[in-house]
Structures are given as structure tokens and as C-alpha cells.
Design a protein that fits this description.
Number of helices: 0
Strand content: over 45%
Order of helices and strands: EEEEEEEEEEE
Number of strands: 11
Radius of gyration: 13 Å
Helix content: under 10%
Shape: globular
Structural class: mainly beta
Largest sheet: 7 strands, mixed
Amino acid sequence: EVQLVESGGGNVHPGGSLRLSCAASGFNFRGSVMNWIRQAPGKALRWVAGFTSNGYNQYYSDSVKGRFTISQDNAKKMLYHQMDNLRTDDTAIYYCSKGDIASVTGNRGQGTQVSVSS
């Protein structure tokens, strides 16, 4: 059974930073495509960033490129999401997801709330 557990969300001011984590279990983590996706209040799920299998390639949406950095630790089956220079429009529930690259479908965890406000 695929299990994904996100953590690390919180409240920050614009310009601040947060680091999200995602613990994965129940599947071949090293060989899987993994994404970070988010859902802002009243909005649809949006893809944020993702890895191809084995973490060889990373892709970012234009809205976060240069501010967010994703990484993974295959030995620990962990995903990380370093978010810098946060903006108010980054406020959302953030999920890690197992699925096709740049997809918002597929398995995801319960999410972690990120709130950016002054």
C-alpha cells in the first residue's frame, strides 16, 4: 500500500522559508516519479515540481522556479521541498504525490498547510 506522509508546514511572512518533508513507504520509491502539488483555498490542485524516476531530472512550474528546490533521499525514502522567498500566493496545502511527471492525479498524502501572510 502506498503511504505518503507530509510534514513541515507552518505560518511564515512573505520572503520567509520553509522546508517540507515527505516520508514514503509501500512502493518502489527509487523507481517512481514523484511530484509536489498544492491546493490553494478555493482552487484546483496545481503541480509544483517533480522528479523523474531515480531523481535524475527535476522539473519546476514557472511560478516557483528559482525559489523552490526539491530533493530526495533514496536510502531514507524521503522527499524534501525547500521553499525560499515565499509569497502570499504560495499559501496552500502541499502534498507529495506518486504519479506521472507534472500530474496532479495519483497517490498523495494528507498534506501539510503552508500559510504566507504579513
